[in-house]
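Quick one: structure for this chain?
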Amino acid sequence: MKNHSLTKSSLSLPSFSIPKISLFIGLTIAGQWVLSDVAHIPGGGLGLLLGVGFIFYILKPGKVSFDTPSTVQGWVRRCHDVLENFECLLEEGEQSESKKERINSLQTIINRSDDQNIGFLKTKGLKLPDKDHIENVLGIKNKVKVSFPSSLPVKDQNWILPDLIQEQDFIVYSLALPMSAADLLWIRNIPADQPAWLMVACVKSSDWSDEQKALEAQLPDRWTNRILKWNGSQTEMASVLSPIKKLLEQPKKNIDNTKLRLLSRLHSSWQKDLEKLRREKFQIIQTRSQWIVAGIVFASPVASTDLLSVAVVNGLMIKEMSKIWDCKMKPELIEAVSRQLAIAAIGQGVVEWSGQSLLSLAKLDGSSWVAAGTIQALSAAYLTRVVGRSIADWMALNNGVSQPDLELIKQQAPQLVSKAAELEKVDWVGFLKQSKEWIKSQSNDYKFNSV
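Got it. Here's what it folds into:
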C-alpha cells in the first residue's frame, strides 16, 4: 500500500505589509468594541486576545503525521469508523438498508477464501492457453483458481474494469502485437497496486527483442520486467508463468495484499457517499454562519471585514465542521488552517470582488439596500462562504490526518480558495436570494428598534 508520509516542517512567517499590520491592529481594537458594546458579549480583552492569538498561531510551527492503514486490521477499523460516521450523521430509519449492504460488503472481503485467484484477460479474437493446464502448472503446491472472465470490449465509454477482475489476486493480460488502442486503454486502467503481467503472443523469437523494446516504449514504467513472451505452445506455459509461480509460494501474503487493496477501494467508495452527506450538513452550517458574520459586520462601523470574519469562522463554523468530518486534530491546529485559507481568500480579493459585484447589482435594485453597511456585511458573508467551503474541501482531502502540514497548507491554500470561490460564483444567484431575505429581516429589526 502506498504510504502517504511527509517529513516534518515548520511554518514559515507569511508576508505581511505594513498597512496590513496596521489595519489588523486597528481591527483588533475595533473588534473588541463590537463584541463588548454592540454584540453585548462579556469579556473586556476579547478583541485584544484574538489579535494576540492570531499572531501567536501564525508563528507557531506545525507538524504532520499521515495515518494510512498498512494492515488488514487497520483498514477494517477504518471502515468501521466510516460506518460510525454514517450513524452519527443519519437520522434513525434512514440507514437501515444501506447499513446492511455496507456491512455485507465489508464482511465479504474479510471472509475471502484462502485460494489464490488468477484472472486471464483478453479482448475479442485472442487465444488463451488451456485453463486446466494452467491450473496444473501453477497449483501443484498451492490452492490456485484460474478464471477466464468475458472478453473485454474493443469499444467502451468508461474503460472501467469489472469488479470480478479487480477482485483477482493476480492478472495476466494476453496481448497481440502490434498493441491496439483498446488494449492500451484497458492496460492503463489495471489498478497500480494489483499484481499484473502482460503475456505477449510472439511466434518468431528472432523478432522478439525489437518488438519488446517497441512495446515497452508505449507502456508505463510499472510494466518493466512484467512482460511474458508466449509462442502459443501449451508445453511452454510452465516456463512462461514461472515468475508468477514463484510468487504463489506466499499465499497468505498475497491474499492479505488483495484484502488491503479491496478494503482501501471499499473505504474510498464509502467516503464518497459520506462526503456527499457531509456537504449536505455543511450547507446548513455555512448558511447560518455567513449571516452571523453579516450581522456582526453590519453592526460595526469598521470599514473592513477581515478580523471579524476570521473570528466567527474559527469560533462557530469550524467547531461544528470538525464534528461533521470527525476531525481528530487539535482545535488550534484546525484554526491555523482556517487562518491560512482566510488570508489566501483576502489576498485573492474575494471581499473586493464580492463588494464590486454587489455594488453593480445594487444599482439595478437600489430599493433592497437599506443601510450603508449592507454591502460590507454581504461581502463578509460571502467571504465566510468561500473560506467555509475551502475548509470543507481541506477536511475532505485530509481525512485521517492526525496533524496538518502547515507549510504544505500554505502552498495549497490559494488553489483551495480559488476553487471554492469559483464554485460559490456558480451559486451567486442563490446567495443573492438569501441576501435579500437577510436584508429584509435587518430592515424589520431596524424599524422595530426605532419605534
